[in-house]
Design brief:
Keywords: ATP-binding, Cell membrane, Kinase, Membrane, Nucleotide-binding, Phosphoprotein, Transferase, Transmembrane, Transmembrane helix, Two-component regulatory system. This protein is an alpha/beta fold. The chain is built from 31 helices and 27 strands.
């Protein structure tokens, strides 16, 4: 918690949905809750607090929240939502210039909105400063108020999502209820009845906590006002304990624990009744509730542990359920007391674990019946042994039935495990690459990520459809979906997916594809699953080195082709004695080296089953500490229905030089380039290109992760040799820090491995620089030397991209120390300084640069995200000359350079002065700046001319003291005032004087200051006469 200066909440066109809680000042109500008028009058006298998380603790009298807001968008209708359902009172007041323009009310005690959570439809007029007051109160619960502002569309989307999630939740409860009715009717009436009561109590709790009671009939909602969520938690503890007692046989209980649980039930029942009567403080009520809850969870866990030790296998499921409830309750407590941040996960984890436990109760009921059935079978076997001659045939039948049941259970378990693996594989790709899309600005890679996500989503949909096919699931069989597919496209999809994972582990990924048929007939989805599983296994057991995916045609006839897929790694390898175990379901290798890598043991089993299912063969060669090679040979039909396109002639007879010192990688790249028609030459180093006439040939320079330290050296060689068509093929971090030669065509960057998709746009016009209007201005920039300082390499890379076609020489530094070192040795015309940097920030760096001999007077511009006027003034007072607000644009950078680095020659100075506005006071401009308010314009000019004498005195005082810094500060303030009063000539003189002072053109400064002071005298003399005529003329 920290006191923070509050900014105005700006709502613009890019604004769709945003958390506003951190923007509000919080005023606790101590002795009594102030009314709106009382709070509005005394707000400036009251202490306020700010919170990083919207959790304000126990506040009996409620709290006021205050913030300023301005709507700069074209949308006037907004939805304000407080995402906490236990809010008894929530009131919103919006004022404009002290006048109340909107009042809204919602909450448990006075529900007015159609949403379960407190929601308010705001009407925010555009471009009007507003003040928002929110009063919130939750007397029976910790005050949690995450406040969101949505557009109408975003609100509908959020509501639809919320209702969908809760719909699934209540749907699951309904399914469990149907199962419980069945169980009650045919199995155990007592357990079924208690389970139904538990479901009903849980439903009541969810309706109370989620706020969905407000969506029911009014009379039902009124009844719920007298029942609180704490009472329902205790009721759930009682019903869950009764279920546990019924599900765990009494002979599995320790006597002392059973007695403790019995007394705890009485205590729970006592407090359940007590909480129905008002009077308890919320702190005490919550404390008692959670104490009873954890005591109940702990004792029930102890009972299940004791039963599990005694080989009562249904206790295993019960133990998982109680453990999940303990975890959910712990996280819920930490969330309610503000230790964990407010987010949907922490808000709903308790409800999710309750649902999990409720489902596990039903599973335990089924397992209990199975346990009892097995006991009966054992008793029957015992009876059969004692009466063998009588019931021998019956024993044989029972034994066969038991074996068939066990076998069916094993088949089902294995099938579900396989399906789980197939689901997680594409889901991992979707989640991973969607996260990459948030941060990656490279359009080629973003397009590739989208293709991968679409492909993985299609695979996931196929798996889900298979799961829903009950006939297939019951039979434990899969079917081949034979369709035409492109083997090269399939392999490139797999390479794009898995190479990213390999690079994250700092592994090289080699993609070696020989000539393949254009189109084959087969199940592309299962082929992809096979390759992904094999590659995932290789990645799992490889910590350094490389992963290789290769494919070639082993045999081919006119209508059939056998493809051989090879996955090779440099991992830990496998002992010969263990190779036979890796394809056996649920087998784990025993040696110590492999144990730390073990998972479910199903990945390679699935691979073998898929290969066998498709009529293929899979083999493995491996040596410990040398790596493994898995080879899968599968036959396919050749597709003649898809017309084969002619091989592209775009790169036919063009030469490609491959600079790669690793034979494995260069051989794979050579195959890829040859498939596109390139004539390839493979070299080890860039320096070897001196022996060749390169011309316009493409030069592919490989920058692998293992040679990260040599990147700058290789780039320097490229610059020295003037290589035109350069393609940097890299792995690991992006080579953003390379110092590119602006006189050469910009190189293309491709992430390894090379694929035909990545190379298809190699020579298209889309990769040429855009010659738009902004770039024309860039070319006309003055020839200066500029330094940019930023700890974010991406920002510096962006500047280099913008200015590469300009005469500007751009040096970059990634921290304050590097910037000081450069400024000590180099004279710069302009310095861009990032403020927020680790170790040494921009202000401290600026102070050191001001002490260097070469750059003591160089203009330094602060690049900052702080848009507040006080912050900007702080930067100017700290020695900086100007500021540039983030996010920056190319137009802002061009304007900044022209402002600070454009020289004003002596011969042009008088011409500029003489070309100024003829009239000293432009009344039309002054009127326009005041929105055509005649009286306001006169008032502004009155105040302005009144201060002119002071401004002139400050300027003359600075000149006498020979303090150009004081002169600049005075003129800077005067220039700001000129911008709002309609004095164009004086405004021009101020701008010219600032430019001269900032660029140290001292020889023409006196003349400009003289004109400026004369213009001040002229305005002081003219204004009274003009004012008189304006007052007497009609308007």
């Amino acid at each position: 918690m920290a006191i923070a200066s509050k900014k105005t909440i700006i709502v613009d066109d890019s604004f769709t949905s945003r958390l506003l809680s951190q923007e509000f000042s919080i005023y606790y109500q101590a002795s009594r809750a102030l009314s709106f008028d009382e709070f509005k009058k005394s707000r400036h006298l009251l202490p306020y607090r700010s919170f990083n998380t919207p959790n304000y603790g126990f506040v009996q009298k409620g709290a006021w929240l205050y913030a300023k807001i301005e709507n700069r968008s074209d949308i006037s209708r907004w939805m304000l939502e407080i995402r906490f359902s236990q809010m008894q009172h929530a009131q919103v007041f919006i004022t404009s210039q002290g006048t109340l323009i909107q009042y809204l009310n919602d909450g448990i005690q006075n529900k007015t909105s159609p949403y379960p959570l407190p929601s308010f439809e705001l009407d925010l007029p555009s471009n009007t400063p507003l003040e928002m007051y929110i009063y919130i109160k939750s007397s029976s619960m910790v005050l949690v108020a995450p406040i969101y502002l949505h557009t109408d569309k975003a609100q509908r989307t959020q509501s639809m999502l919320d209702f969908s999630i809760w719909g699934v939740f209540y749907g699951v409860l309904l399914v469990l209820f149907v199962y419980a009715i069945t169980f009650f009717a045919y199995k155990n009436r007592l357990i079924g009845a208690v389970y139904i009561v538990h479901l009903f109590i849980m439903l009541l709790f969810q309706l109370l906590w989620s706020g969905h009671t407000a969506l029911l009939f009014d009379w039902i909602n009124t009844l719920f006002l007298y029942v609180r969520a704490e009472s329902m938690v205790i009721a759930m503890c009682i019903s869950a304990t009764l279920l546990n007692l019924l599900l765990v046989p009494s002979n599995m209980h320790r006597p002392k624990i059973r007695i403790m649980l019995r007394y705890l039930l009485y205590v729970n029942l006592l407090f359940f009744c007590a909480f129905l009567v008002p009077g308890f403080l919320p702190q005490i009520k919550l404390g008692i509730t959670y104490a009873l809850c954890f005591a109940t969870l702990s004792i029930n866990c102890a009972i299940c542990i004791n039963a599990f030790i005694n080989d009562y296998f249904p206790a295993r499921a019960l133990l998982i359920g109680w453990a999940s409830s303990i975890i959910g309750s712990s996280l819920s407590i930490l969330f309610i007391f503000g230790i964990l941040p407010n987010n949907p996960f922490h808000q709903h984890i308790f409800h999710f674990t309750l649902l999990v436990q409720t489902g596990i109760f039903l599973l335990a009921m089924v397992l209990r019946n199975q346990y009892n059935l097995e006991l009966e079978v054992k008793e029957a076997e015992s009876d059969a042994l004692s009466n063998f001659d009588v019931i021998e045939e019956q024993n044989v039948r029972l034994d066969l039935a038991r074996k068939e049941a066990i076998k069916a259970s094993e088949i089902k378990s294995q099938f579900l495990a396989n399906m789980s693996h197939e689901i997680r594989t594409p889901l991992n790709a979707i989640m991973g690459f969607s996260k990459e899309l948030e941060n990656n600005q490279n359009m080629l890679e973003r397009e590739e990520h989208v293709r991968i996500i679409n492909s993985a989503a299609t695979d996931l949909l196929t798996v889900v459809n298979d799961i829903l096919d009950l006939s297939k699931m019951e039979a434990g069989k899969l079917t081949l979906n034979t369709r035409p597919f492109s083997p090269r496209n399939l392999l490139e999809d797999v390479a794009a997916l898995m190479s990213k994972t390999a690079h994250l582990k700092q592994l090289e990924f080699i993609f070696e594809i020989h000539e393949l048929p254009h189109s084959l007939l087969g199940d592309a989805f299962k082929i992809k699953q096979l390759l992904i599983n094999l590659l995932s296994n290789a990645l799992k057991f490889t910590n350094y080195g490389y992963i290789k995916l290769s494919a070639r045609v082993r045999e081919q006839t006119q209508s059939h082709a056998t493809l051989e897929f090879e996955i090779k790694d440099s991992g830990i390898g496998i002992n010969q004695s263990d190779i036979s175990k890796i394809f056996t379901a649920f087998q784990q290798l025993d040696d110590d080296l492999n144990r730390s890598f073990q998972g479910t043991g199903l990945g390679l089993v699935i691979c073998k089953e898929l290969v066998n299912f498709m009529g293929g063969k899979i083999t493995v060669l491996s040596e410990p500490a040398q790596g493994s090679t898995f080879t899968a040979s599968i036959g396919f039909g050749i597709d003649f229905s898809t017309k084969r396109l002619n091989k592209t002639r775009r790169f036919e007879d063009k030469t490609a030089y491959i600079i790669d010192d690793w034979n494995e990688s260069s051989r794979a790249s050579k195959l890829q380039l040859a498939a596109l028609g390139f004539l390839t030459v493979t070299l080890k180093e860039v320096s070897q290109l001196k022996n060749y006439a390169i011309g316009n040939a493409y030069v592919f320079i490989f920058l692998p992760f293992r040679n990260l330290q040599n990147r700058n050296h290789v780039n320097k060689q490229r610059n020295e040799m003037r290589i035109v068509n350069t393609v940097f093929v890299y792995s690991g971090p992006e080579p953003n820090q390379l110092e590119l030669d602006a006189t050469l065509a910009p190189p293309k960057f491709i992430r390894m491995p090379l694929t035909s998709r990545k190379l298809k746009d190699l020579d298209t016009a889309a990769h040429k620089p855009n010659e738009g209007a902004s770039h024309e201005h860039v070319k006309k920039l003055p020839a200066i030397r500029m330094l940019a300082v930023d700890d974010m390499a991406l920002n510096l890379r962006l500047l280099q991209t913008w200015l590469k076609a300009s005469p500007v020489i751009l040096d970059v530094a990634y921290d304050g120390e590097s910037a000081i070192e450069r400024c000590t040795n180099t004279d710069y015309d302009l310095i861009l300084m990032d403020i927020q940097m680790p170790d040494m920030d921009g202000l401290k760096t600026t102070r050191f640069i001001r002490k260097t001999e070469l750059n003591i007077g160089t203009p330094i511009v602060a690049v900052t995200a702080h848009a507040m006027e006080t912050e900007q003034q702080h930067f100017l007072d700290s020695g900086m000359d100007d500021f540039l607000s983030k996010p920056i644009s190319i137009n802002n950078v061009v304007a900044l350079i022209n402002t600070w680095c454009e020289q004003v020659p002596d011969s042009k100075q008088n011409a500029v002065i003489n070309s100024a506005v003829t009239n000293s006071i432009d009344w039309e401009t002054a009127l326009k700046l005041c929105y055509h308010n005649h009286d306001s314009a006169i008032e502004f000019l009155d105040a302005f001319t009144h201060r002119l004498t002071t401004h002139a005195a400050q300027i003359e005082s600075g000149l006498k003291q020979q303090r150009n810094d004081l002169v600049l500060a005075s003129i800077h303030k005067l220039h700001g005032a000129c911008c709002y009063t309609g004095v164009p000539r004086l405004q021009d003189f101020c701008q010219q004087a600032q430019n001269i002072l900032k660029t140290h053109q001292d020889e023409i400064l006196p003349e400009t200051i003289t004109f400026l002071l004369l213009e001040i005298d002229n305005i002081i003399e003219i204004w009274p006469k003009l004012r008189k005529s304006l007052l007497t003329s009609p308007h």
